[in-house]
Design goal:
By secondary structure, the protein is α+β, with helices and mostly antiparallel strands. The chain has helices at residues 5-12, 34-50, 53-63, 116-126, 132-139, 144-154, 159-167, 243-257; strands spanning 20-23, 28-31, 72-78, 113-114, 183-184, 187-191, 199-204, 218-223, 228-234, 270-271. It has one domain (5-271). The protein is built from 8 helices and 10 strands. Strand 1 and strand 2 (28-31) form a beta hairpin. Helix 5 packs antiparallel against helix 6 (144-154). The radius of gyration is 21 Å and the shape is elongated.
């Protein structure tokens, strides 16, 4: 089984596969023989079967030192159908049976990650919702009591001002000292689901102008539902909001709005379980 999923998925996955380029009048087509197709299917299984708790436990040793800088955080469960991240990374060689979309895999820890910059971007983008403070307690009722004092404090000024205070001025470079800024670390998978997996295969079928004409499914890898993801921060007080209150606010936002690609069709939904 692969010991480094990043290396396996982006280097070893296609190694030794026979490729044939066929030229026609419109474009070049890439194909492989039956042995190549069988080998790709085998490597798909290797990738998924390696995504178990033993792999996670071994990989955790690579980021143990980073946790000394983490002062705040929480763990959320991935809801069905799972979480999609890294689909913008090219992973297509036109081979039948291949996983065609990318996956964010940290090459040091070897784990699927949600980049800290993505976490920060999602959190900041929500501050454009004018009624954010009103809808959060409705969308996340189990945090309603914790959100009420935060809601009262944040009513003192516009959300844009709060976004600048928490995340830095969107229109200029952040002039604050690094010790005064919040740090958003990469979010990582820390536990597998009930089937002892943190990755799963999935398919989507993009449709053109004619949704019934020649639909071609795209097979890809997602973070499996039922996994636990740890969101990690080093937070500071911002105006009247304490670091702990910001942690609660961030948790509520991620539960309410989700993270990753394709949240509009249900992916990337999270929940908090005690």
């Amino acid at each position: 089984m692969p010991k480094n999923l990043h290396k396996f998925y982006y280097k070893d996955y296609f190694a030794g596969i026979y490729f044939c380029i066929k030229k026609n009048s419109d474009k070049n087509e890439v194909s492989t023989n039956n042995e190549g197709t069988v080998e790709i299917e085998s490597r798909n299984n290797q990738l998924l079967e390696s995504s178990n708790q033993s792999y996670l436990d071994e990989a955790k040793k690579a980021f143990g030192s980073i946790n000394t800088f983490v002062e705040h955080g929480f763990t959320l469960d991935v809801r069905y159908p799972g979480l999609v991240t890294g689909v913008g990374i090219n992973h297509e060689a036109k081979v039948e049976g291949e996983f065609k979309l990318g996956l964010h895999l940290d090459y040091t820890t070897r784990l699927p990650v949600i980049y800290g910059s993505s976490v920060k971007g999602v959190l900041r983008s929500v501050f454009r919702e004018e009624n954010l403070l009103d809808i959060l307690p409705i969308l996340v009722p189990n945090l309603k009591n914790e959100l009420e004092p935060i809601q009262r404090k944040m009513q003192s000024k516009p959300l844009k001002a709060w976004a600048d205070a928490i995340f830095g001025d969107d229109d200029d470079r952040d002039s604050r000292s690094p010790y005064e800024r919040d740090i958003f670390f990469d979010a990582i998978v820390v536990n597998t689901n009930s089937r002892d997996r943190f990755l799963a295969a999935d398919s989507i079928t993009p449709h053109g102008s004619d949704p019934l004409k020649n639909p071609v499914p795209l097979t890809f890898v997602r973070i499996a539902s039922g996994c636990k993801i740890e969101f990690r921060f080093r937070l500071t007080d911002s105006d009247s909001l304490t670091a702990n209150e910001k942690e609660t606010l961030f948790k509520a936002i991620l539960i309410a709005f989700g993270i990753g690609a394709k949240t509009n069709v249900g992916y990337g939904r999270l929940e908090y379980k005690d």
